[in-house]
Amino acid sequence: MEGGPLVNVHANDAAGLVQRLSSIAESVSFDVAASGVEDAGAEALAAALRDINCKLHTLDITHNNVGDAGAEALAAALRDANCKLHTLVIGGNSISVAGAEALAAALRDANCKLHTLDIVWNDVGDAGAEALAAALRDANCKLHTLDISRNRISVAGAEALAAALRDANCKLHTLDIAYNAVGDAGAEALAAALRDAHCKLHTLDIT
Asked: How does pLDDT run across 135-161, given as a tens digit for each residue?
């Protein structure tokens, strides 16, 4: 990763994760993908992100066992003024509506610096997509890249995201909503959004 060393940790105890992170003072990218991390590990990482000395800007926690409690802890960290994270990759976990709603609330917070959110292969559904879409319409939201593919999203979620793309406050330029069930109506809503003068999107995947 640009700007500092990439740290790959294969450990599933929360204390071990944070100890490893704190031992590398200049780390800006931290990779714990496929490491058996559960909610307790995510909560410990969230606590580290709130530390004023933490320089981390990229966290990859893909393919673990993080649920809504872990997502909520990370969301709370994103709202902390000390948190410098701008890229969160949390795909392939067990996050549902509650976790998505917590992350959406964080995106609306002025302290949140996140510009890239990868939440692929979870179970946020239409309600989670709608919460994230509402966040995209908030002036405080800085997100420009969202991967919400493989999340059991149907027409309602696609239409909510399309409405967000038409909002002047929405900064999104990359949206991946592939492998969902948006159907023709969802695709048509997204296509209509692309024709709106306010839409800044230049990359869309609805495979």
From this structure: 999 999 999 999 999 999 999 999 999
